[in-house]
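Hi all, long-time lurker, first post. I run a small reading group and we've been trying to get comfortable going from sequence to structure in the token notation. Rather than ask abstract questions, I figured I'd post a concrete chain and ask someone more experienced to write out its structure so we can walk through it together at our next meeting. Sequence below, copied exactly:
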Amino acid sequence: MADYDQDGRLLICRAKQLDEIPSRCHNCDGDELQQIMEHVDGGSWICMTCNYLNSYEPSMRLTKNMPFSMVNLGTDEIVFVEGWDFE
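-- Answer (accepted) --
Happy to help. Here is the structure in token form:
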């Protein structure tokens, strides 16, 4: 099960921009992925085992400063931990 903060928001610790839509987590090889963001041609999937963000976006380079307008869940439902970044 994924980790949540004291306000019940899903924690995101690190992320990796992948070359294809993920079927398994890049970090722990788990298969419990839930799509939480939809981008132009791809999206981001959180691993429900280790809170790792697996991202696929072929038409643009995602950064840690990406706008929350791309986030389906919104800032009240997810939170990035201090110092998080893409690998």
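A couple of things your group might point at:
The CA atoms of residues 14 and 69 lie 20 Å apart.
Strands lie at 10-12, 14-18, 33-38, 43-47, 52-56, 78-80.
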